[in-house]
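Sample entry (182 residues):
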Amino acid sequence: MSTRTLEADLFGRETRFEYSDHWVGYALLGLRFVMAWVFLQAGIAKLLEPDWTAAGFLANAVPAGNPFGGLWVSLAGSPMVDMLVVWGQLLIGLTLLVGAFVRLAAFFGAFQMILFWAAHLEGGLMAGLPIGHGFFVSSHIVDAILLFGLGAIGAGRILGVDAWPEEQSFVRSNRWLRVFLG
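Predicted structure, serialized as tokens:
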């Protein structure tokens, strides 16, 4: 097992620590699979329920005092919203599972988690951004940060499809394509 040293400047402070390539690889692969399952399970459950719609949640379950309450109510009943939620979750889950376009999937997955988090707010900034069981942090924020990490690292290259296109000359000569891969 090899170890490496990570040196980074975080918030103006130099940080340095050693880590094991071996165990970090397993951890990242595990995180990618777990996040894939979270999205796949949610998308499949919605797809298999013939009458599923986000309308009931958007119109009735958003807490009073939510700073975006008017937006959520205006989206209730939109077939486009229902389609984006179901198919977004399925595609994000599948791409994370096979390790294809992981950075793109991580971005859209984190965006969806932030939207879900915002729908659970019970007040604004002056109220401390309260949610059902505390302040600010919920599982949606945790998922969004995990997805950010998977995308930042490029976890699709670990036993995933993204490793192959990144080695191709077309991608190497067009480095901007790596924004979507990884």
